[in-house]
Write the structure tokens for this entry.
Amino acid sequence: MVKKKKIAQKHPNLGWLLPVLIIAILIFAFKAFNHESVNKYSQNNDSTSITPTISTSNWHTYEDPTNGYSIKYPESWSYQEVTNEGGTSIRFYENGVIPRQTYMMARGNEQMMLSMITNQTLKELEANTKIPQTTIAGKPAIRLSTGAYVELNRSLILSIHSPTYPQPALEEVLKSLVVGK
């Protein structure tokens, strides 16, 4: 108690400063947090901000006559056919990059991967993912945030997967899928 009196005696006009500083810091912190929350909300829920349409007029088409489908991909991508013990997949990369494949836990730099699933049905995939079926290209499908499973026929499912998330071109790629050419 003696020390407080000595401080107050030395600086009698500064007793109001500490409560004012604390209140100012609290107001600043509240406004900063509230501003960030409003920005996050408006980015995610603003009905006027629609994902810009991506022009697909210059896109290339990948065709798989064996499995009966085609799909468009951006002109800035190229693809490689990769065969390993899991089967054959088509991996799309940005032009000019040295391809690194995603394998097991090692993350590659693919923009998109196409592969065939022959050991599971769409119903089994639906049960595993707990995502209800929809349709893509007029075929039964399961739409994931990173791609889709599309049933080409009862024993063959096309897996379209984009490990680069978010992938702005993915929606347009899925729209371009043609099955049964």
The chain has two domains: 2-45, 60-179.
